[in-house]
Amino acid sequence: MAERFPIAERVEAGPAEPGLAGTGPADHRPGGLGDGIAETRRRGRGAGSNLSGRYESLARSIFDDGWGSLDELPPFATTVTIEKPKRIITRNDSPDVNFDRSINPYRGCEHGCAYCYARPTHAYMGLSPGLDFESKLFAKPNAAELLEKELANPNYAPAMIALGTNTDPYQPIERQQRITRRVLEVLDRYNHPVGIVTKSALVTRDIDILSRLAERGLVKVALSVTSLDRKLSRALEPRASTPSRRLEALMRLAEAGIPTAVLVAPVIPALNDSEIESILAAAAAAGVTEAGYILLRLPLEVRDLFVEWLQNNAPDRAARVMSLVSQTRDGKHNQSEFGKRMTGSGPLAWTIGRRFELAADRNKLNRAKFKLRTDLFERPLAAGDQMSLF
Q1: CB 226 within 8 Å of CB 168
Q2: pLDDT tens digits for 114-153?
Q3: pLDDT tens column, 287-299
Q4: Which 8-state DSSP code applies to residue 365?
Q5: How far is CA 236 from CA 33, 44, 248, 308, 356, in A?
Q6: Cis link prior to 6 (omega < 30° from 0)?
Q7: DSSP state, 375?
Q8: Is 200 exposed, middle or buried (0-12, 13-18, 19+ CB in 10 A)?
């Protein structure tokens, strides 16, 4: 029998609430951890449960009251709450990333990637990093207006703004919300550099804007390709674009003259690490010129959610995967230290890094790094400013 990894203890508190995770005859899955939502209710989702966030004083559970009421609960539906922040550019001083500012048009992500390191941020909203993260979303429709206002600040100095650092700017709800597109329109208007990371072929919708930015050296687009195996990709990233669609998107972007990169992310030992070479070869054939990789990260609640995913989807490899993960993380399942959190440590992590470098070199990737321009930036006029005569 595959080894089982414990999930944190939960305390039942009062009446059950629909949408909260729990166990019971209707929600128990043989061979799983027993804390998950029934498969019929979470079809098309990445997480298997909806455990309470770390800031909640009590953890609540669904339980069967004997009347079969669990069978009547509806599937998890995506809901979108409008959020109106006062600022839209988020700053960071992390030494191991190549940007110091970013924009996230959405909180939560419907792609539902089982390994997503951003899941714990939903706990700040009093929601679960599990199914809530991928079904209870927040949109910021005033993002473009806020961006223009912040760019107009006389003290603002231009540098690349990253889109897609926490949640995907091209997740499915972007089709209707179009917040990312409006943000790009502002950046295009004022000649501001932008870097995009996504798992969605929807990025090709905005080729008209991206190609204009590319002509001025103001944009780079990276697509994350976790696996070329459709079955594995569907299980890991249930609502993201298929691997073939992502490669097609990279080809279309490259053909439009837009600098492109591929991210092999995350690399999961004994699950997809064998595909590093094939992913880079496929991306190079699509016209990609740069590549990067990130080792699997399992911060906070993500660890338990990913273990649960392994028990449900790869029980024969669960113990092996987690053992190898700990070998890349100094005996732990996660490292938060700068310089180690992306690439890990130890012989296995070193080997993965060298394999990636050799494959990238063999496919003529990373021969040159495309540097975005900042000298073209034109500050928006603030209220009361006088327009230039020239």
Answers
A1: no
A2: 999 999 999 999 999 999 999 999 999 999 999 999 999 9
A3: 999 999 999 999 9
A4: -
A5: 18, 10, 20, 12, 21
A6: no
A7: T
A8: buried
